[in-house]
Specification:
It contains 12 helices and 2 strands. The two termini are 20 Å apart. It has a two-stranded antiparallel ribbon. It is mainly α. The chain is elongated.
Length: 246
């Protein structure tokens, strides 16, 4: 979570941004109280002067203040920081019970099964299913661009590939492996921390399946899961080791 000071800064900037006209300290005080802040007008005045000096706000005479471009950037930076802190807390919860060895065992099993599922999907998918696959990948790209997690799209993508294959035995096998609902968020967090892009892997699989190329689809899925394995290895060699030492 953000510090108390950062939360106050974020809320003040957001109030000014959302107002239809310049905002004065009186309106700010009342709105902040509604949000649960207990601050004096003197404290708000000092904060606004700090914002003026930093270029986050612009004074409009005695009417109050409006938000500058720098202020919008500051508000976005605070939102990004809060999102990353929340990700860290969620990851700590999700990682419970997931050590490196367990993750690698799951990924190796998935590689064997899902590579064949991808090849079969290229042969057996319907045109409607291919449209759904395109939609999932496009949604994942937009969600990533907005800075949000894409674990839901990851689950949907792999589940659809399994259905498209038309092999109930393999679909059941991979479904059993993927029963752990925290697996996708854990892997996504790891890939984020090692600067890896899952969307590119999914797009390569989508292209091979959509063009009915089973060999290429199989190899694209193998490459995807090999990348996941490499990301897990790299995460434990760097971030996880550093966290333990600290």
């Amino acid at each position: 979570m953000l510090s108390e000071r950062e939360r106050l800064e974020s809320d003040v900037l957001a109030i000014i941004r959302d107002a239809d006209q310049p905002v004065g300290s009186g309106l700010l005080s009342a709105t902040l109280r509604q949000l649960g802040h207990v601050v004096s007008e003197a404290t708000i005045g000092r904060l606004l002067r700090d914002f003026d000096l930093a270029g986050y706000t612009q004074k409009a005479g005695f009417q109050g203040r409006s938000l500058s471009t720098a202020g919008r950037d500051k508000l976005a930076a605070l939102a990004d920081k809060e999102r990353n802190l929340l990700w860290g807390a969620e990851f700590a919860d999700a990682l419970k019970g997931h050590n490196k060895e367990k993750l690698l065992e799951v990924l190796i099993a998935r590689r064997a099964i899902e590579s064949e599922l991808a090849a079969l999907a290229a042969l057996n998918a319907t045109e409607e299913e291919l449209k759904q696959l395109n939609g999932i990948v496009d949604d994942q790209r937009r969600t990533l661009a907005a800075g949000n997690m894409t674990a839901r799209q990851d689950v949907d993508f792999h589940a659809l590939i399994a259905r498209m294959a038309r092999n109930r035995v393999l679909e059941s096998a991979v479904g059993l492996i993927r029963q752990d609902t925290q697996l996708s968020p854990v892997l996504e967090y790891i890939r984020k921390h090692v600067n890896s892009m899952i969307y590119i892997d999914h797009d390569n699989i989508r292209k091979a399946v959509s063009t009915r190329q089973p060999a290429q689809a199989r190899q694209a899925m193998i490459s995807h899961i090999d990348n996941l394995i490499a990301d897990v290895e790299r995460y434990w060699e760097t971030t996880a080791t550093r966290d333990v030492s600290e």
